[in-house]
# Entry
Amino acid sequence: MNKIFQNSQPTSDLSKFEGLALEEAIDLLKAYMFQKRRATFLHDGVRVYFDPRTKEVFLFDHRAKRAKLEYSELKQWAICLQCGAKGFVEGDEPRFMNDTTCAACASIEPQTRRTSKRLLSHQKRKA
# Structure
């Protein structure tokens, strides 16, 4: 496997966590320990991960649900499958309709979304 590609993948191998990432992982695990019952979006198979590309530390379960800390509170973290936007599912101004679709992409008509995807895939093939 290409070493550059291998080093940019999220990992649960603690030896690959950087100093600040380890501290954040500790805080995340402490929050999980105390807030586990309130974090109903997380289920079995919860692991801590570090993404060396984005420097993000997060919890991840067997159903691909993510959690991060926001002001010491464990919250569901989402990545839009349409546009790649990241953010918390709940909050003062929720940017996400659910854990896979941001509010902006949810407001786009389904036909427009399919057309946009086709255009993007066509542009990628051209490049």
About this structure: The helical segments are 3-7, 19-35, 103-106, 110-126.
